[in-house]
Design brief:
single chain, alpha+beta, three-stranded antiparallel beta sheet, elongated, binds zinc ion
């Protein structure tokens, strides 16, 4: 851990405490080091050890699980002799068919588009950094990935799906498909990937490396 001094001169790089708003000169860190606010002891910046490889492995796992979640049935409903399977993408088209186009679009953005951007963007940035390169468009992509992270609401969708499943379970026999379990794994892997490397660390690594 490093002790910081409150910034008094016009330094080109600085870091602000999100809790108490104190501003410091940004220090240069090595892997494993962490910066705490000198006033309120909040964590400002953690340069995680082996963060690039861990985040990349988790992102690739998330990409694989996202693919599985979109290719296989999310659940199967049986009532008498009738059986129907639901794919994840049908949650969007189903809502549009039931005269809820805005809700369908929202589900599409929050559970399909945002995770696609976060996973593919992270994979592009991380694999480039591991290869020692800052790939073309990495800086604007880094901004977009961390903006899209706020719009990724896969866990909210899963919570809503679980409530619906409880109600549907009373009307028909319900079987959870491979997609459901892949979706659960996706949430775990994506959350772990994003917490393995924070935005400031990724940004610093991109600045340090040559394009
Ligand atoms: Zn503070």
């Amino acid at each position: 851990m490093l002790r910081l001094r409150v910034r008094t001169s016009g330094a080109s790089k600085h870091i602000a405490c999100p809790d108490c708003d104190a501003v410091y000169d940004a220090p240069t860190l090595k892997e494993g080091e962490q910066v705490l606010c000198a006033q309120c002891h909040a964590s400002l910046f953690h340069y995680h050890r082996n963060s690039l490889h861990r985040a990349a492995a988790l992102t690739i796992a998330a990409a694989f699980l996202f693919l599985v979640a979109n290719c296989f049935p999310f659940m199967t409903l049986r009532a008498g002799y009738r059986e129907s399977q639901m794919l994840l993408s049908q949650s969007v088209s189903g809502l549009e068919e039931q005269d809820s186009p805005f809700l369908g679009a929202a589900v599409g953005i929050f559970t399909l588009a945002a995770p696609t951007l976060v996973i593919s963007g992270l994979a592009y940035l991380l694999l480039g950094l591991i290869a020692g390169r800052r790939l073309p468009g990495a800086i604007p992509l880094c901004r977009w990935v961390y903006r899209a992270r706020r719009w990724n609401m896969t866990e909210v969708f899963l919570l809503g799906a679980l409530v619906s499943l409880l109600k549907l379970g009373k009307l028909a026999t319900l079987t959870l498909g491979i997609s459901f379990w892949a979706f659960v794994g996706l949430i775990i892997c994506l959350t772990a990937a994003l917490s393995s490397i924070d935005y400031r660390e990724l940004w610093t690594r991109l600045e340090e490396i040559e394009a």
